Amino acid sequence: MFGAPPQPSKAELERAEAQTASDIKWTFAGAVVLYFSPFVVDYARKLV
């Protein structure tokens, strides 16, 4: 009945891939920061 949605252009796909890669990198960096934050807080408490 209805046709498929239009295919994204090559430029749109490249932008989407770049955005996805950036999102994955920031998510990984956030996970690392959250993992190490309790250790940093404990270390800072021992210094004071």
From TrEMBL:
GO molecular function: protein transmembrane transporter activity
One BP annotation, GO: protein targeting to mitochondrion
Topology within the bilayer: Single-pass membrane protein
Compartment(s): Mitochondrion outer membrane
GO cellular component: mitochondrial outer membrane translocase complex
Keywords on record: Membrane, Mitochondrion, Mitochondrion outer membrane, Protein transport, Transmembrane, Transmembrane helix, Transport
A Pfam family annotated for this UniProt entry: Tom5
Family assignment from sequence similarity: Belongs to the Tom5 family.
UniProt-recorded name of the protein: Mitochondrial outer membrane translocase complex, subunit Tom5
Organism of derivation: Paraphaeosphaeria minitans
Species lineage: Eukaryota, Fungi, Dikarya, Ascomycota, Pezizomycotina
